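Notes from the pairing session

We agreed to fold both candidates in a single pass and log them together. This is the raw record for the first candidate, unedited. Please don't reformat it; downstream parsing expects exactly this layout.

Candidate A
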Amino acid sequence: MTAQIATDTLGAGTLVKKASGWYMVIAVIFIVLGVLAIGEPFVAGLVAARLVGWLLIFGGVAHIIAAFGGGGVGRVLWQLLLALVYLVGGGYFLSHPLLALGSLTLFLAAILLVDAVVEIAAFFGTRREGGSVWLLINGVITLFLAFLIWDQWPSSAVWAIGILVGVKLLMTGFSRLMLGAAVRRVASAI
């Protein structure tokens, strides 16, 4: 019985090591993509704009499908109207990716501005709590980033989305790489 448990554990450890190896390969791919996106932020931004375009097209199709789900004339018309907005928006993003990138960048600046205001307000609501100063720091940095993107718009469209996508891919890759390495160490200890 003990030999069977040891064999099962050994098999599980090997399986975990193999899976964590693939996880680490994917992490390296994320890191490489992040470096490429940071190195060519304009291209990465255009890819992001096209991705948003396709997501809007798929959303429009989903609304058309939802329109046939019933629920009365009002619901059907509402779903068809939403489908039209999504399809037109997606078509615009796909046919004019440079203009779409500019629109996304301006939208990003607005989102960052709102996020900064919320973070700073949250600081004032929790300033007596330990560590709440990080809310203020995050809010001020986010406010600065929003101002930087807004102030440099439309030229910020060339770098803002691509750099942020690149940083996100890079951080995702590094975090997955560290997680995969930790899993490997645990699997080796079994």
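Candidate B (folded immediately after A)
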Amino acid sequence: MSTVKPSYQVSGRGTIIKKAGRWLTVMGILFIILGVLAIVEPAVAGLAIALLVGWLFIFGGVAHAFGAFEGGGAGRVVWHILLAVIYVMGGIYLLDHPLLGLGTLTLLLAGVLFAEALCEVFAYFAAPRVGGSGWQLVNAIVTLLLALMIWRNWPSSSVWAIGTLVGVNLLMTGFSRLMIGTAARKLATRLA
């Protein structure tokens, strides 16, 4: 009876953690760079996001078109084909008119932020008070102010809102990955 020998070797507990820490650090640095670029050029970042959403709509439409013929009756086929057409038309619209699409996405963002703020306020008053629960109300107020600022300045807020918010998100994600990667590398050093 033959035994299969793995072609890889792990030379200690810290090796995998060290490699993961290295990759997390590299990812963190890339996210930070992308975040800074999006904050510096929010209009370009916003347009890139509008184009990305357009392509995602088109891919979603194609997926619905293929899914229409997986069975389930004529009603299912009709609805999936209808959804496929709507998705593809929406995607083509975003690709053909990225500035108008960015304006639409910005208005949608303001609506989502407004709804989130309302949910946070309701959750704050519905839940019992615990330590730090005041931050939930602070979050709701800041989110509501951001939603109102985007909505009140729309459509001119389309130039900066989505790109800046995505840039801040990328920056914060980058810093968190960088810190996790640094901690993983320190842990790997201690385990070695």
